[in-house]
Model the fold of this input.
Amino acid sequence: MSIGENVNALREQMAAAAKASGRAPGDILLVAATKTQAVDTIQQAVAAGVDACGENRVQELQEKEPQGAYTGVPLHFIGHLQKNKLKKVVGVCDLIQSVDSLVLAEEIARRSGELRITQDILIQVNIGADPAKFGIAPDELSMFLEKIAQLGNIKVRGLMTILPIEENSGCNRRLFCKMNKLFVDIKAKTYDNVSMDFLSMGMSGDFYAAILEGSNMIRVGTSIFGARDHI
Ligand SMILES: *Cc1c(COP(=O)(O)O)cnc(C)c1O
Done:
């Protein structure tokens, strides 16, 4: 199947899940996870109508961005971001989905201050308490947001999570549900610089369940591009 056909098939499934959870197809954003993909391949996904591209590695971003890989859609950063590389991401990406520590948030705020911009970010939550995953622990989130609320030049637009790989689908739904509860709870509170617009969860294997549980932004690689050779 072509990338265009893959995206169309995905959109149909997304629409079904949206409907089943009482929402419209347009309420769910599709972010193409473009790691390891070539520039022309990524442009095919953009032409097929994905809502954004998400890149994992700073080096790939730096190589592909000047070649116009993401032209036409917003660019997100979805990988673990090291402090010493953030200058290449802040102000370049429209949304940094993977803010997983206060130090990183502070450094992003400092850099966006230098650039005189406001950087949109999501907070990555380690909802499965997976030692192999980055992210803020669920019970530390409100304290984290209180601290972030004091920083200038960044705006928290929502939450992101990556589930532990080995979980079965029943566990996934439970964790997605837990994540949605957190999202809804925080949305009901008011913090400066925080507006809970996006709940980014769900990948190729589990996006349907994620949408049923309230996700409004899915990050999909394999179902758009096919299996990757590595990672
Ligand atoms: C690779 C990746 C995805 C997409 O994974 P697939 O299973 O290929 O759809 C989503 N989110 C992040 C953070 C990723 O690194």
